[in-house]
Amino acid sequence: MEANFEQVGKAFIQHYYQAFDTNRAALADLYQGESMLSFEGSQVQGKEAILAKLTTLPFTHVQHQVTSTDCHPTTNGGILVHVCGNLVVDQESDKPPLKYSQTFVLMPLPGGTGWWVFNDIFRLNYG
Amino acid sequence: MEANFEQVGKAFIQHYYQAFDTNRAALADLYQGESMLSFEGSQVQGKEAILAKLTTLPFTHVQHQVTSTDCHPTTNGGILVHVCGNLVVDQESDKPPLKYSQTFVLMPLPGGTGWWVFNDIFRLNYG
User: Fold this and answer.
1) Which of A73, A75, A31, A65 minimizes the C-alpha distance to A51?
2) Chain A contact present for B59, CB below 8 A
3) Does the distance separating the beta carbons of B74 and A118 come in below 8 Å?
């Protein structure tokens, strides 16, 4: 397996949730025209549509608490990242947190200057 | 987005869990030398190593109850499949089921004769 896929994947997850929880509009830089997002079964494609979806979700304050991060190299130089965790929404700290899982496929930017999100699938895990 | 990725992904999931829950050794046909599996953080590569891992897990009877399946086309003609569900282990039906999530990247076999598993990441979602 390739060398630094785990380092890249874990750094991405830290960056992604920090942006999501503090300045969601900054996530736009991670997506491109080809990018796809499924959020609780609702599927959109392209940077603008994804940003519109992420910034109009029905909660204001949210905190992601990651419990596991697994990274694999995948086809065509991509990195697959699978996360499980807790989601604390709108400071409802008296309620048990929601469990969630999320999967990303990251692709390298031209010139090795970073990574962009090809796929993003988010689900609450009600079980 | 491509036409039948959702159909392929959902048919794969049905086949995969049926084999897992009734004849785990049959899963070997889905993996190749490049395939990677992470099972609860333990990572193995290649058809033989993956089969050895899957057939020596510390439970005998298991039942996957899928609650959500999300499919995306991904890079290089692959299909990304993200599943959430419940896992009932060794007929412990008196206990609440464990929640899990699992992600696959499927790649087409040469000649369009089927699909193989490039990546497989499984996690219980303790949250």
Assistant:
1) A31
2) no
3) yes
C-alpha span between B15 and A112 (Å, rounded): 38
Domain count, chain A: 1
Condensed to tens digits (0 to 9), the pLDDT of residues B76-94 reads 999 999 999 999 988 666 7
The confidence score (pLDDT) of residue B93 equals 66
CATH of the domain at B91: 3.10.450.50
**Tens of pLDDT, residues B102-113:** 999 999 999 989
Chain A contact present for B105, CB below 8 A: yes
Where in the sequence is the domain holding B69, given as residue range(s)?
Answer: 5-124
- Predicted-complex ipTM score: 0.94
Residue burial B58-80, b: 16+ Cβ < 10 Å; e: rest: eeeebbbeebbbbbbbbbeebbb
